[in-house]
Amino acid sequence: MSWMDGYYDRAAGYLYNLDAAAALRHDTRSSAWYAIGLLARNEGDDVNNAEQILTNIINGQYKDPTEQWYVSTTALSTNQVD
Fold first, then answer.
1. Distance between CA 50 and CA 58 in Å, rounded?
2. pLDDT digits 0-9 by tens, 25-60
3. What are the residue ranges spanned by the domains of the chain?
């Protein structure tokens, strides 16, 4: 968790993509796992940060079935091109 803390972007409420090829992009899947880790650790602002991440992911879900692609109902990144 402490290693991932360095990748958390408080302003965006997402984890930066851990892949060096995607500089400064946010990653939904890693952010979701990080949020669960924050809830398990439960120190300081962990719960508030987890809530922000999970809220962002829920708000980013595709609600119109015609916008869903492959098997995902959420954008893989906040920077994903429509």
1. 12
2. 888 889 999 999 999 999 999 999 999 999 999 888
3. 2-67
